[in-house]
Amino acid sequence: MHEHRNRIAAWVLVALAAPLTACGGAGGGGYGGGTGSTGANVPTGVSAFTIGFAQPDGTIGVVNDPTFGTVSGYTQNVYSQTIAFAPGTVVTLRNLSAATDHTLNVLSTTAFPANPSLPTTASGGSTLAAGYTSGTIHGGSTLSLTLATAGTYYIGCAYHYMDALSMRDVIQVSTTATPGPQATPQPSSGGGGIGGGCIGPYC
After folding, report:
1. Distance CA 67, CA 25 (A)
2. Cα–Cα separations (whole angstroms), residue 2 to 6, 10, 14, 79
3. CA end-to-end span of the chain, whole Å?
4. Residue 184: band (very low, low, confident or very high) from pLDDT cuts 50, 70, 90
5. Across the strands, what pairs with 197?
6. What is the rounded CA–CA span in Å between residue 166 and residue 33?
7. What does the alpha-carbon distance between residue 109 and residue 129 come to, in Å, rounded to a whole number?
C-alpha cells in the first residue's frame, strides 16, 4: 500500500515539474537562437504596424541577417531585425529609448554606405523614399510614416550610425518580403549606453 502511494506521489511530482522545466529553460532564446536576459530587462515589443528603435547596446541587440549582414537598433517585433511591410502600409515610428534622440534616415536603396550624409532635420514629408529623413525623434516620441513605394531601403540613425554598434537596418516594402530573424536578447547595459541617455532596457 505504501509502495503504491509512493509511486503515485512520484508521478505527480514528475507531472508538475515538466511544465516548469519547459517554461524556464528557454531563457529568451526564441529570438535569434541564443540565451539572454530575463525578467524586467526584457523589452515588451512594439505594437502592430510599428517600427521601434533604440540603441543596440540595450536589450534590443544586434543580429547578423542572412541577406543583409549585421543590422541593429530597429525592429517591428521585440529585438533587432530587418523590417518588412506591404506597399501602402502606414506605420508608426516609435523611439523606444527613454531619453536618447534617434532618427530614421534612408541612406541608400542599394547598400549600406561607408560615410553617408546624416542630417538630423526632417526631409521628405511623411512618405518613405530615397533621401527621406525623419528628423530628430525624442525619447518616447512617435511619428507616422507611409510606406508608399515598393523597394529596399537601407536606413540608419543620424546620431548612432557611425558608432561601434551601428544603428542601421533595412526596410523591405514588398508584398512578399518577411521580417528578418530577431537578435539574441542582450543584457541591459544599466545606463550610460552609446551616446549617453541610456535608461532602462531600451537604450
Report:
1. 30
2. 6, 12, 19, 53
3. 61
4. confident
5. none
6. 21
7. 9
3-class DSSP state of 185: coil
Query: All domains of the chain, ordered by start, with CATH?
Result: 39-173 (2.60.40.420)
Question: Does the model's pTM come out above 0.85?
Answer: no
CA distance 126 to 36: 36
Contact by Cβ (8 Å): 122, 134: yes
- Dihedral (C-alpha) 140, 159, 193, 154: value to the nearest 10 degrees? 90
pLDDT digits (tens, 9 = 90+) for 23-73: 222 222 222 322 222 334 456 789 999 999 999 987 799 999 999 999 999
The upper half-sphere exposure of residue 76, i.e. CA atoms within 13 Å in the direction of its Cβ, equals 17
Per-residue pLDDT tens over the stretch 11-20 = 333 343 333 3
Amino acid at site 62:
V
Grid cell locating 32 = 535569434
What are phi and psi for residue 29, nearest 5 degrees?
-75, -5
Nine cell digits for residue 34 = 541564443
Phi, psi of 46 (to 5 degrees): -110, 160
Give the distance from CA 77 to its chain's centroid.
6
Q: Which amino acid is residue 131, in one-letter code?
A: G
Ordered DSSP codes for 42-55: S-----TTEEEE--
